[in-house]
Amino acid sequence: MSEIENKIAPYMNNYGQRIIGQRLNMSNLRDILSELRQLIKTIDLGKYDKKFLEIISHEKETLDFFNYVEMFKVSRFTDLKKVLKYLQFRYNFYLASSRKKLFNFPPYLLIEPNAACNLRCPMCFQIDTTFTRKPFMGIMKWDLFTKVVDEADKIGVGAITLASRGEPTMHPQFCEMLNYISKKENIFEFKINTNATRLDEKICHEIYKSNVSTVVISADHYEKKTFEELRKNANYEKIVSNVKLLYSIRNDFYKDAETEIRISGVDFYKDLDRKKFEDFWKPISDNVSVSDPVERWDTYNNSILENVKSPCSFLWDRMYVWHDGKVNPCDADYKSYLSYGNVKEKSILEVWNGRAIEELREKHLEGKRTKVTPCDRCGIEFN
Length: 383
Known about the structure:
Layout: H1 3-8, E1 18-21, H2 26-39, H3 50-56, H4 59-65, H5 68-76, H6 80-98, E2 108-111, H7 142-155, E3 159-162, H8 174-182, E4 189-194, H9 201-209, E5 214-218, H10 224-230, H11 236-253, E6 260-266, H12 274-281, E7 287-291, H13 314-317, E8 319-321, E9 326-328, E10 341-342, H14 348-352, H15 355-365
Parallel strand pairs: 2-3, 2-8, 3-4, 4-5, 5-6, 6-7
Antiparallel strand pairs: 1-7, 8-9, 9-10
Helix pairs in contact: 2-5, 2-6, 8-9, 9-11
């Protein structure tokens, strides 16, 4: 691995999810970045941030600033103007997440097509039997879905993920949802999270036709026994077969697809052989990542963590929209203690700029996270 690859490879997100296996064409990436530097000399740059333009004017600064996942996506883009818009979005996301810069719209939207899941993984809140019933369960209606996506595209939301508390592929109109989002010009990152139990030829083809940016597949082990313990109700052989299908359909029919296939694991027992995990999944994916478990399966009964006081980045960089339109700061609060509005009744902008979420941001900035439930016990530090 080159020196530059070593710099951008150790990507870690807020949940401690680290990329351990990767495929990055550095030669192609350098060509794209070189062409991008030529592009910005020829177009009107009035709407772009000056600091951002300084960064992308130099290869080294670009690779130092942006992480591996972002560069992987750039290496697969074929439209230079899309690269420019995408990197500006990621720069804005950085400002919101790390600098707590408040934009008048959420940079990132996570939409829940369906609240239910067909698995019962021990590290997930789906094992909470007080949650897996009404009023929490349900599927998003089509008119609400299109309202949210249309607004997101109009106001400048740069990224949408279909997922949250449930398994999105269980929605009867899941493929139609993919197709609808794909037609939006201002959504630069389009991701789905799935347990892969329902991946079939129809869904796989629609993923590539809709130019989904990333498919994140939750798969926590490489051995059948432990896999089925952790992915309770899943069939190990079927999941592996489904992932192979997703990978082979891209190779056979969509060789130029920008879609990244990422395997995401949770080291629940804290003894996972990460090299074997990488070696098993890497031949049928682009990237492999692993995170340590986070106490999410019974958030509300966790112990209060007096020393965790860092402001939560999610209050500035994203919005969760449940199936019924209810808006939440995160899905660790899966019963919506902190819901700050409903996009069925108001616009995204009205909810995002409302007094309820403003007060929550203020408390976090003032070091009063320990005065808010369940922020006082979620355990995630944001540095």
